[in-house]
């Protein structure tokens, strides 16, 4: 269960006591505030706080203090222009703080995105819960034969069952030993900061992660991509939905230009021009490496 009854009661209480404010409010994000959205088997994402909305991006770009004579269509056009031309500062005017519960190995990937403020649950002071990420059978896959970072065919039958049993038994045994080392029943008990070293990478941790919209978009572009590891991608995909409700105009531009768009190298652009002129261009005559050509053909055929 992602949240304890006590945590659920705390969330219900927070949502039941709204307060008036003069600051910009996103109705879409207000609907999500504090609510825990489940991810994986024990994880969740919830919005703790946010600042700004689509109008904050526009306001920063125009350095204005009111709506003036501008219309929503003008705002949308400006936001799309900013996204199209890789402007970043206006999007940094919006911020959001998430509470995330995630497996440690996912957290180690996530923390590579360093342009955020992070405060993680400390196993030096507290005892971690007996909660581990155990993949669903359809997510157990062999190593990819073409991508050193990816997965290949799904494991089946006895091999899948054996791997699942190993994951469960190893995690359980490690936690049993963790508790045994901490125990003060007839012994001093090992310090928490040392006992934690024995815990597996699939145990769950939690953190608060605060980030501005520009850097959040960068995170989502990489981690919500189909090539990202499944276990971090499901978090990013959920966060995409939250952001779409928070800043719909900005997210629509992001989805169009970043998630749905393609960046071309000078060589790639030249291949397109040569093909439009009727030339039959191959990898050998393109000037691209085999890897570049494979990615190019994956988009353009």
From TrEMBL:
HAMAP family: ThyX. Catalyzes the reductive methylation of 2'-deoxyuridine-5'-monophosphate (dUMP) to 2'-deoxythymidine-5'-monophosphate (dTMP) while utilizing 5,10-methylenetetrahydrofolate (mTHF) as the methyl donor, and NADPH and FADH(2) as the reductant. SUPFAM superfamilies: Thymidylate synthase-complementing protein Thy1 (SSF69796). It comes from the Bacteria. It holds the Pfam family Thy1. DUMP binds at residues 109-112, 120-124, 196, 223. Its cofactor is FAD. GO terms for biological process: dTMP biosynthetic process; dTTP biosynthetic process; methylation. The keyword Transferase applies. The active site is at residue 223. Its EC number is 2.1.1.148. Pathway: Pyrimidine metabolism; dTTP biosynthesis. Homotetramer. Belongs to the thymidylate synthase ThyX family. Binds 4 FAD per tetramer. Each FAD binding site is formed by three monomers. Transmembrane segments: none annotated. FAD binds at residues 89, 112-114, 120, 212-214, 218. This is Flavin-dependent thymidylate synthase. It catalyses: dUMP + (6R)-5,10-methylene-5,6,7,8-tetrahydrofolate + NADPH + H(+) = dTMP + (6S)-5,6,7,8-tetrahydrofolate + NADP(+). Keywords: FAD, Flavoprotein, Methyltransferase, NADP, Nucleotide biosynthesis, Transferase. One of its GO terms (molecular function) is thymidylate synthase (FAD) activity.
């Amino acid at each position: 269960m992602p949240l304890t009854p006590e945590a659920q009661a705390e969330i219900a209480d927070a949502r039941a006591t709204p307060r008036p404010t003069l600051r910009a409010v996103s109705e879409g994000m207000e609907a999500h505030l504090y609510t825990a959205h489940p991810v994986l088997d024990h994880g969740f994402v919830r919005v703790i706080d946010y600042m700004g909305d689509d109008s904050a991006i526009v306001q920063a770009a125009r350095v204005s203090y009111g709506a003036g004579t501008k219309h929503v269509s003008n705002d949308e056009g400006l936001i799309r222009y900013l996204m199209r031309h890789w402007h970043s500062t206006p999007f940094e005017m919006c911020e959001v703080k998430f509470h995330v519960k995630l497996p440690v190995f996912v957290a180690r990937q996530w923390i590579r995105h360093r342009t955020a403020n992070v405060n993680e649950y400390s196993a030096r002071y507290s005892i971690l819960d007996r909660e581990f990420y155990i993949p669903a059978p359809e997510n157990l896959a062999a190593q990819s034969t073409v991508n050193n970072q990816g997965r290949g065919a799904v494991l089946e039958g006895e091999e899948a069952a054996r791997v699942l049993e190993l994951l469960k038994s190893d995690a359980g045994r490690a936690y049993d030993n963790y508790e045994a080392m901490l125990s003060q029943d007839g012994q001093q008990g090992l310090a928490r900061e040392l006992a934690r070293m024995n815990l597996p990478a699939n145990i769950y941790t939690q953190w608060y992660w605060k980030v501005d919209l520009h850097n959040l978009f960068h995170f989502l572009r990489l981690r919500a991509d189909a090539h990202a590891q499944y276990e971090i991608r499901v978090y990013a995909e959920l966060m995409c939905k939250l952001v779409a409700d928070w800043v719909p105009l900005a997210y629509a531009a992001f989805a169009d230009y970043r998630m749905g768009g393609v960046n071309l190298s000078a060589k790639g652009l030249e291949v397109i021009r040569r093909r439009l002129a009727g030339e039959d261009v191959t990898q050998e005559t393109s000037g691209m490496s085999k890897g570049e050509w494979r990615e190019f053909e994956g988009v353009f055929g």
